[in-house]
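Intended use. Records like the one below are meant for learning the mapping from a protein sequence to its folded structure. Do not use them to infer anything beyond what is encoded.
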Amino acid sequence: MQTHFSHANIMEMEQRQRAVFINSLGGFKSVCLIGTKSKSNQTNLAIFNSLVHIGANPPLIGFVVRPDSAERHTLHNIIETGYYTINHLNEHIYTQAHQTAARYPQNVSEFRATGLQEQYQDGFHAPYVFASHIKLGVVFKEKIDFSINSTIFIIGEIQDIYVPNNCLGSDGFVDLETAGTITCSGLDSYHKTQHLHRLSYAKPDTAIKIIS
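Structure written out for the chain above:
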């Protein structure tokens, strides 16, 4: 048995219920903390679950910012300075990470409000999250405004990557499960993962093989 929802049914839902429902349909998603710092050295930390791989040459990564109808400190700092960090979540920090979604005033750092520690590495302007295991230093490259719902897509180029030594394979594969990276579904559900298999490169008329 399945429950069917028409477009009319969806649009008739109470706003918050519809947001929870539709957000759940995207499946398991990458969830991260984005760290920024303004020109006046005010730090900001915010959780995002819309991280998208754009390309590897050059190494580009993107994420979605909701409509700019309220203060968006992360977006402001990225546009102002051009620098931000992307920090993977793990099971030791996900509740603090979730709290960064609260609407703190601009002069309050979410690092301080949630007890997460700032970390600066190799002269990069924006702060990393000390307790995160996989961290990216990113430089802003492009802002795309979507007219269909006023969301904003930010694309950045990865400048620095920090990965635990025991998580990096000889072929470049990063073992996120060994690193303790967690995922999310919907707006507020967090999950650990269970590895099945890595599979061979798909080619026509060639059987798929388990490689690890």
